[in-house]
Automatic annotation (TrEMBL), chain A:
Signal peptide: none annotated. It comes from the Bacteria. The keyword DNA-binding does not apply. Keywords: Cell membrane, Membrane, Transmembrane, Transmembrane helix, Transport. PROSITE patterns: ABC_TM1 (PS50928). The lineage of its organism: Bacteria, Bacillati, Actinomycetota, Actinomycetes, Kineosporiales. Belongs to the binding-protein-dependent transport system permease family. This is Sugar ABC transporter permease.
From TrEMBL, chain B:
The keyword Cell membrane applies. It is a multi-pass membrane protein. The keyword Oxidoreductase does not apply. It comes from the Bacteria. It is found in: Cell membrane. The chain crosses the membrane at residues 34-56, 99-123, 130-151, 163-180, 206-228, 264-285. Residues 1-27 are annotated as: Disordered. Residues 95-285 form the ABC transmembrane type-1 domain. It holds the Pfam family BPD_transp_1. Belongs to the binding-protein-dependent transport system permease family. It comes from Kineococcus endophyticus. This is Carbohydrate ABC transporter permease. Gene3D superfamilies: MetI-like. Residues 1-11 have a biased composition (Polar residues).
Length: 306, 300
């Protein structure tokens, strides 16, 4: 590939400023965007959390840690924290357990598994709002699919939208339905990369399939389990649940489905308390950071890397 | 057996008969397979039936939806619900806005990620490690934390209800940069040396040599980005309040309580229309998409 007028090759070693310039031109835009839209706002958010400030108003007063004090003395807070915790435990635990079970199922030589694999994974690529709308109709207390099925077997359907506990259960089910495919697909990819000779050796040694799984396959999957545990946890607590909750329940009834993620939006953009919402966002960030770091430190010791 | 297993497990198409097993293992294997098929059927039904329910409802007349017990099949395919979607909200605008923001957002994200990853691998710079950490650590910042400051900034510079306001704040590429960097490190040095000897500058080396050699990774990351942009909801919800500027997921909620009571037929038709494009993308590029996600999962 010769050109008519030869351009001299960049002499990177002799002209450091030149390679610096190249580096800044290539990496600069991406890094600048990260600084402007991720790192600067991260700091700003902490500053905002020290203000009494309503979105849209020009005046803000410095109140120190008052927003944090208000948060922990607000009677709504225990409910929201409990909802957040229940939602996280059910969705993360459910996604991991069901995802692994599905991956094992789809790893077998069964007719039709290609179709089921696609069906299980498809919801992951769909809009959370659209999924929420679809399931809103499925759970409709009068004309929905679930109430119809329950009626067919002679049970009355609970009013999923009006009871806080049922509403939370409903949102969890929909979240699991949407996200379990992702976990299953990643586990499936990992299962298929387990070296086959190890499994054969176990079979020759007379290990039962169950024993083989728990003693050999599961430990080999531990890096995947670790990765999924962290990412699924972050997804469920940092945005993934927002679309579904907003489409289905708008945080209600009576804060029954208000998680911290939803609360940040609600306080800032519906109720207008931007300073208070910033304090919740800061707390959410710290909580996620702590849990993730603990996950990393604790699990790191138990992960078997190949 | 191992050869057969390996041959079929990757492609996942035709189940090969398991021959050569010992005699006593057979009865148990057969029972397990019955359980397996039961599992497949249950999983398939749970995943498909809600979608089917929605699809059928989108073709039903009003009185067919509001009957107890509910009927499964519409008497005749009614396209009226789909027409109503376009008549009650500016749905064509939503569609256009979604296409524009998705193409611009995903395209620029991939380009920025490629440039950044190239610089991180092939250009000399003293603080490369630090820059890489700055890129990667951003993955740990949940979007809720940056929401209020970003909204304030976009509002101040007058970018509410604009494409740049929707696209720009989410543009920086962290995961893409990471995956590209991982892949670039595996490229053979000889190819790039040849390109350098030919007199290609960094820019040409990136687009004429490195990117073509990384085509599978690039397309996988591009697909994941397209899916992400298309489904983005919270940010477009905040920065658009004029309906002509809304994207599909935001606009869909306008169908919800149009006349006080939810008109399920129309809402389900709108939902089908929002899901359909990305579902087609999924069906065509399933393997690539999975490859992109799995690369992210297995890259460490």
């Amino acid at each position: 590939m010769t050109t008519l007028h030869q351009v001299p090759a960049p002499r990177t070693r002799k002209l450091p400023w030149r390679s610096w310039g190249t580096f800044l031109l290539l990496a600069g835009p991406n890094v600048a965007l990260l600084v402007v839209f991720v790192y600067k706002p991260l700091v700003q958010n902490v500053q905002y959390s020290l203000l009494h400030w309503n979105l849209g108003s020009d005046t803000a007063t410095y109140v120190g840690l008052q927003n944090y004090v208000n948060y922990f003395t607000n009677p709504k807070t225990p409910t929201v924290l409990l909802t957040t915790l229940v939602f996280a435990v059910v969705t993360v635990g459910g996604c991991m357990a069901l995802g692994l079970a599905l991956a094992r199922l789809l790893d077998r030589n069964l007719r039709g598994r290609t179709f089921v694999r696609a069906a299980v994974f498809a919801p992951y690529v769909l809009s959370g709002v659209a999924v929420g709308m679809c399931w809103l109709f499925v759970f409709d207390p009068q004309y929905g699919l679930v109430s119809g099925l329950l009626r067919a077997v002679g049970i009355g359907s609970p009013n999923w939208y009006n009871d806080p506990d049922w509403a939370l259960a409903m949102v969890c089910v929909v979240y699991l339905w949407k996200y379990v495919g992702y976990v299953a697909i990643i586990y499936l990819a990992a299962l298929q990369s387990v070296p086959h000779d190890i499994l054969e050796a176990a079979q020759i040694d007379g290990a039962s399939p169950l024993r083989t799984f728990w003693s050999i396959v599961f430990p080999l999957l531990s890096p995947t389990t670790f990765f999924l545990g962290v990412t699924v946890f972050i997804e469920s607590n940092a945005g993934g649940s927002f679309d579904i909750i907003r489409a289905m329940t708008k945080g209600g009834p009576l804060e029954g489905t208000t998680t911290m993620v939803y609360q940040v939006y609600q306080e800032a953009f519906v109720d207008g308390s931007a300073g208070y919402a910033s304090a919740i966002a800061t707390l959410l960030f710290l909580a996620l950071l702590v849990v993730t770091v603990v996950q990393m430190v604790v699990v790191e010791r138990k992960v078997h890397y190949r | 057996m191992s050869v057969q297993e390996k041959a079929t497990s990757g492609s996942g198409r035709i189940p090969a008969p398991r021959s050569g097993d010992g005699g006593p293992a057979r009865p148990r294997r057969r029972r397990v397979d019955v359980l397996g098929y039961a599992g497949l059927v249950v999983a398939g039904l749970v995943m498909v039936v809600p979608m089917l329910w929605m699809l059928l409802a989108s073709f039903k007349q009003r009185n067919e939806i509001y009957t107890i017990p509910s009927q499964w099949l519409p008497h005749a395919l009614q396209w009226q619900n789909y027409a109503d979607v376009f008549a009650t909200v500016p749905f064509a605008h939503f569609l256009l806005n979604s296409v524009i923001t998705t193409v611009a957002g995903a395209g620029l994200k991939v380009v920025l990620g490629l440039m950044c990853a190239y610089a991180l691998v092939f250009v000399e710079f003293p603080a490369k490690r630090l820059v890489f950490l700055v890129v990667l650590a951003a993955l740990m910042v949940p979007p809720q934390v940056t929401l209020i400051p970003n909204y304030t900034l976009i509002a101040q510079i007058g970018w509410l209800n604009s494409y740049q306001g929707i696209v720009l704040p989410g543009l920086a590429s962290s995961l893409g940069t990471f995956l590209f960097r991982q892949h670039f490190q595996t490229l053979p040095a000889s190819v790039l040396e040849a390109a350098t000897l030919d007199g290609a500058g960094h820019w040409r080396r990136l687009w004429q040599f490195v990117v073509p050699l990384s085509a599978p990774t690039v397309s996988a990351v591009a697909l994941v980005s397209v899916v992400g942009e298309w489904n983005q909801y919270l940010w477009p919800l905040l920065v658009t309040d004029r309906s002509e500027m809304m994207t599909l997921p935001v606009g869909l909620t306008l169908l919800q309580n149009n006349d006080g009571i939810t008109n399920w037929g129309v809402l389900m038709a709108g939902t089908v229309l929002v899901m359909l494009p990305i579902l087609l993308v999924f069906l065509f590029f399933q393997r690539r998409l999975v490859a992109g996600l799995a690369a992210g999962a297995l890259a460490n």
